[in-house]
Amino acid sequence: MNIRVFFKSVKFAFRAKKRVIPFMIVYAILFIVVSDGYLSDNGLWYILMALIVSSFYAILISQFRRRDMSVFKCIGWSNEDVMLLVIGEVLLVTIASFLIMLQISFEIVGIVTYFSVNMAPGSLLAMVHDFIVIDSGPLFTTFFIVLLMQIPGLFIAQRRAMSVPPMKALREE
Question: How far apart are CA 36 and CA 49, in angstroms?
């Protein structure tokens, strides 16, 4: 694996803030929903939801990066290096969203503990705490579930990335 290309893909992802930041929010919500629901009786539906969202994002990246991929192929990058661009952005969004959810959970638990707030059932703080704060076991398990569910989407994105002709970069659109 070409580490230089991987780090370049992370820098490249930060340039697409209009797409990356909304999907960080979507992934953060995905972490909340999947971690709350995968242990229930309908746990398979939550894992399927993680598969659909993760695959959709990988396919979306390969669609938006089509021109960039053809430019990189034009200058001599291999298909594996081009695929690392997609993998880097997907990993960046997943890890950043996981860290955001971890930080929000720490903050809410810290506020409740520091102020020794008595969380009466039905209060606003109790509802926020119950919805957002995720125990560490389900949170880490959800992180690995979401990572595993991205593999099919990455395979589809890889096929799309490999099919991009280098000459597409030279055509005017």
Answer: 13
Task: Give the pLDDT of residue 10.
Answer: 75
pLDDT tens for each residue of 104-128: 888 877 777 776 666 667 677 677 7
Distance CA 79, CA 10 (A): 17
Residue 52, pLDDT > 60, answer yes
Neighbours of 66 (CB within 10 A): 16
Q: Which amino acid is at 171?
A: R
Residue 38, in any domain of the structure: yes
d(CA 125, CA 101): 17
Is the CB of residue 23 less than 8 Å from the CB of residue 57?
yes
* Overall domain count for the chain: 1
Q: Is residue 143 part of a domain?
A: yes
Confidence class for position 1, pLDDT limits 50, 70, 90: low
Could you tell me the residue range of the domain that residue 141 belongs to? 3-164
Is 172 part of a structural domain of the chain? Answer: no
Helix axes of 3-14 and 79-114: crossing angle, nearest 10 degrees = 60
Is pTM, for the whole model, over 0.85?
no
**Residue 57 covered by a domain:** yes
